[in-house]
């Protein structure tokens, strides 16, 4: 019988590409990952990987098992959801990951309604950058997470995850009220307030500015939109801000609607849609 935990490591290796990356994602040593994969080969009775120094490549059998392993893990998720559905109702821990703006605006009312309707649920919220949500779901550090993408930077389709739409919102150019700037072209000469490098918000700003023929001149870096708007209101620069974060901007900030959209989705592991706790959260949010 093949061990499910080892199958997860095989799927991780297919997705991440190296044993070192799998070890880092799972908080194991590289040696421990290699030993588990070698044990899986013995269980399978066939070579799954070809090792050349520090490099590994999937054999034909390894590719077949990785594909089937993904379906096995999805089926186990569905089984867990089905078993949970025959119990008394949504109960136990539900780990939710969301970006800071959503934690402030979307989640509080949903958490209140869930707590009243399902007091046996143990709701746990963690602020997570959307870029980190897929890995956190696959590694079972989260049960549900909010993802977002932009029409200029569409999200990748993840075979391990499912999702449902939550929001589709306008993105604004936020500028100091006294500054003569009314378009992205005019913003070329302004200092910018940008998110940290490596985040989706940072990448979107770079792409938007590149589409208008320039590289933004960064003055400040901030990942929380409340901070961003405060800095814009203080005359420190311009920035891109989605509608969800711009409901009550400071009076010293002017918002210019752009032809740019941000989409937010509720994501979970494939097969988990019918889990009572997951379904209850989706219903509360939507």
TrEMBL record:
Similarity remark: Belongs to the LysR transcriptional regulatory family.
Transcription regulation as UniProt keyword: yes
What InterPro entries does the database record attribute to this sequence? LysR_HTH_N, LysR_subst-bd, WH-like_DNA-bd_sf, WH_DNA-bd_sf
- Organism of this sequence: Actinoplanes oblitus
Query: Which controlled-vocabulary keywords does the entry list?
Result: DNA-binding, Transcription, Transcription regulation
Keyword Transcription regulation appears in the UniProt entry: yes
- What is this protein's name? LysR substrate-binding domain-containing protein
Q: Which PANTHER family match?
A: LYSR SUBSTRATE-BINDING, TRANSCRIPTIONAL DUAL REGULATOR HCAR-RELATED
**Family annotation (Pfam families):** HTH_1, LysR_substrate
Q: Locate the HTH lysR-type domain: which residues?
A: 2-59
